[in-house]
Amino acid sequence: MGGSHGCPSCVDSFGSPEALTSHIQAKHTFVCPICGSSFRSRHAADQHHNTKHTSTRCSECDREFGSENAMEMHYNLEISTTMKSTVR
């Protein structure tokens, strides 16, 4: 270690850009164990997990979905369409 390529996340520095990149990927990248997406902070990885991989239940039909996005898609395609057709 020691060089002109300083890590923006810690005090380490490296002699080449390649060594710095390797360090960042090994020490400062958080990979989602479910889908493999990578993030530069634990906070970003946690946010991703909570919005993409946490199961949620539809308040109208009680079906469970593996992510908030899947439940929203279900609601927009199935529930809101059914509600609009019954209002007429």
Structural notes for this entry:
The protein is of the alpha+beta class. It is built from three helices and six strands, in the order E-E-H-E-E-H-E-E-H. Strand 1 and strand 2 form a beta hairpin. The model has no long low-confidence stretch (mean pLDDT 85).
Essential attributes:
3 helices, two-stranded antiparallel sheet, 88 residues, Double Stranded RNA Binding Domain, alpha+beta, single chain
Task: Summarize the structure in short.
This protein is α+β, with helices and mostly antiparallel strands and 88 residues long.
**Strands side by side in the biggest sheet:** 1-2
Count of helical stretches: 3
How many β-strands, per DSSP? Answer: 6
- Uncertain regions: pLDDT < 50 for 5+ in a row? none
- Report the order of strands and helices: EEHEEHEEH
Main sheet makeup: 2 strands, antiparallel
* Percentage beta strand: 5-15%
Alpha-carbon Rg, integer: 21 Å
End-to-end CA span: 71 Å
Mean pLDDT reading: 85
CATH topology of the largest domain: Double Stranded RNA Binding Domain
- The assembly state of the depicted protein chains is single chain
Helix content: 40-55%
Q: What's the CATH class label of the largest domain?
A: Alpha Beta
